[in-house]
Amino acid sequence: MSSTVATEQGLRIDGKAAAAELLEQVKEDVQAVVKHGVLPTLAVILVGDDPASDVYVRNKVRAAENVGIRSLEYRLPASTSEAELLQRVKDLNADASVHGILVQMPVPKHISEAAVIQAIDPRKDVDGFHKENVGALSQGQDTLVPCTPAGCMLLLRKVLGQDGLRGLHAVVVGRSNIVGKPMAALLLQADCSVTVLHSRSKDASALCRQADIVIAAVGRPAIIGADWIKPGAVVIDVGINRISTLEGKTRLVGDVDYDAVAPIARAITPVPGGVGPMTIAGLMANTVKAARMQAGM
Ligand SMILES: Nc1nc(=O)c2c([nH]1)NC[C@@H]1CN(c3ccc(C(=O)N[C@@H](CCC(=O)O)C(=O)O)cc3)C=[N+]21
């Protein structure tokens, strides 16, 4: 299956196909681990009843089923206290049959996101958000890496080749802990020159226009227009923004103005069907990796 489609413009990078490919690999890895008597298991905790989170959690559980990963779903009421949630995490840390723990973000305001992340055993931190994993990534060690940036790297290597990133100028727009910062670390590890832009950056579009690789992770619908992009650049759109249409429906758009940018880019990811599916596939890959590490394989 090819995960890039040649169009009249550049390449449309098919994240769905790339994710399906990765999931096939994960499925084989799961079978190998199972042969060693270990059933990879992912625990997903959702606090409250945000409808978007509900959909994501269901997608994660379905993806796990499809590759043979056992999943445990914990749906806790929005009134759950921080102490109760931390206790649940501790119980899962202590349960040797559980290899991965994911607490769906955002959590209700009365709960500290940081406290929850730090409570997870770093070896079970399949989001790669724990300080120990963040530190390991920043030092270039093999560790559990955040799923979205890891997925972006796989897509970039598909377009540019395994070593094709070396020496290129990558611009990351956005500096979040879950995407921007780990993305910059991975690009640096791939020998890119890396610039990170953010809301306070001066002349952001001019700086971005120097990039061979653009990673858009701002969370604002279509703010990256054609004037931000050098012709021939590879554009990865991490944004997932739900906007209302004139017909009163909702629609998903990225941070990049796709129609304006596609004609000048060498390759570009669509939204939906780009980075999103890779995030879920990456989570499955991390779960097997965690299971393998915990089994000493
Ligand atoms: N602890 C934690 N880990 C996460 O990884 C995490 C989280 N919390 N909270 C929310 C965000 C968001 N996220 C997405 C995953 C897949 C798609 C995805 O598959 N999107 C599809 C479209 C899905 C749709 O139609 O809504 C696509 O882009 O094609 C999107 C978003 C993971 N997150």
Automatic annotation (TrEMBL):
EC number from the UniProt entry: 1.5.1.5, 3.5.4.9
The pathway noted for it is: One-carbon metabolism; tetrahydrofolate interconversion
Give the UniProt record's GO annotations in the biological process aspect: L-histidine biosynthetic process; methionine biosynthetic process; purine nucleotide biosynthetic process; tetrahydrofolate interconversion
Report a single Gene Ontology molecular function.
methenyltetrahydrofolate cyclohydrolase activity
Q: Name one GO cellular component term.
A: cytosol
Q: Which reaction does it catalyse?
A: (6R)-5,10-methenyltetrahydrofolate + H2O = (6R)-10-formyltetrahydrofolate + H(+); (6R)-5,10-methylene-5,6,7,8-tetrahydrofolate + NADP(+) = (6R)-5,10-methenyltetrahydrofolate + NADPH
One of its Pfam families is: THF_DHG_CYH
Domain (Tetrahydrofolate dehydrogenase/cyclohydrolase NAD(P)-binding) ranges: 146-294
What the entry lists under PROSITE patterns is as follows: THF_DHG_CYH_1 (PS00766), THF_DHG_CYH_2 (PS00767)
Q: Return the InterPro entries for the record.
A: Aminoacid_DH-like_N_sf, NAD(P)-bd_dom_sf, THF_DH/CycHdrlase, THF_DH/CycHdrlase_cat_dom, THF_DH/CycHdrlase_CS, THF_DH/CycHdrlase_NAD-bd_dom
Query: Which part of the chain is the Tetrahydrofolate dehydrogenase/cyclohydrolase catalytic domain?
Result: 13-127
Residues that hold NADP(+) according to the record: 174-176, 240
Q: Which UniProt keywords apply?
A: Amino-acid biosynthesis, Histidine biosynthesis, Hydrolase, Methionine biosynthesis, Multifunctional enzyme, NADP, One-carbon metabolism, Oxidoreductase, Purine biosynthesis
Q: Which NCBIfam families match?
A: PRK14186.1 (NF010783), PRK14188.1 (NF010785)
Q: Any idea what job this protein has?
A: Catalyzes the oxidation of 5,10-methylenetetrahydrofolate to 5,10-methenyltetrahydrofolate and then the hydrolysis of 5,10-methenyltetrahydrofolate to 10-formyltetrahydrofolate.
The UniProt family comment states: Belongs to the tetrahydrofolate dehydrogenase/cyclohydrolase family.
Q: Which PANTHER family match?
A: C-1-TETRAHYDROFOLATE SYNTHASE, CYTOPLASMIC, C-1-TETRAHYDROFOLATE SYNTHASE, CYTOPLASMIC-RELATED
Assembly behavior: Homodimer.
Q: What is this protein called?
A: Bifunctional protein FolD
